Amino acid sequence: GENVEQHPSTLSVQEGDSAVIKCTYSDSASNYFPWYKQELGKRPQLIIDIRSNVGEKKDQRIAVTLNKTAKHFSLHITETQPEDSAVYFCSFSNSGNTPLVFGKGTRLSVIA
Amino acid sequence: GAVVSQHPSWVICKSGTSVKIECRSLDFQATTMFWYRQFPKQSLMLMATSNEGSKATYEQGVEKDKFLINHASLTLSTLTVTSAHPEDSSFYICSARTANSPLHFGNGTRLTVT
Lengths: 112, 114
What we know:
The complex is a heterodimer. Chain A is an all-beta fold. Chain A has strands at about 5, 10-15, 20-25, 30-40, 45-50, 55-60, 60-65, 70-75, 85-90, 100, 105-110. Chain A has no helices and 11 strands. In chain A, about 35% of the residues are buried. Chain B is mainly β. Helix content of chain B is about 0%, strand content about 50%. In chain B, the strands form 2 sheets. In chain B, strands 2, 4, 5, 6, 9, 10 and 11 form a 7-stranded mixed sheet that branches. A 4-stranded antiparallel sheet of chain B has the order 1-3-8-7, with no helix packed on it. Chain B is globular, with a radius of gyration of 13 Å. The interface between A and B is medium-sized, with 22 and 23 residues.
């Protein structure tokens, strides 16, 4: 079935440094790649998404890159802050009303 | 933006009883809603896809007779955990999207079965 591998599972960075989380997916028909941030006990929140016709998208300190040939996509957080500490999930789906498949998550800790 | 409301936010029930969780799309019509389950420190696992006016589609390994899903209107889907057991204790999250839009999650329901 469809699956996505996410690395690393945990990541600790110093405040102000950058954090990168990488995902590899299996379904070549996938064309929608959102990233979610989940704080403890709360629902996942969409932080950024990218579609397959775009290679990179940036929103302030957050950026996502997509390599469709290699089936890789990555989340980049620059100038990290303690409030960035959370679990981040990559996900993907086809267009329309298909469900998202989630990676196993990355627990990011930003150390002040 | 699109809002998905889920109730209750938490529930404690005794083993053997049933629990119903409601998921509503407040400002849009959702022909399809998705139910996920998340165990502590794990990822979100899709349980089933809820289709308005038809039977839900369950993922492999999810018992359809245990997790009853009803999607009677374009804004409401319910998940009923029947004959709950302690191993059913988990965080249940519903979600909905319109075509080509981001997936919006409800606040989730933390179920504890004693």
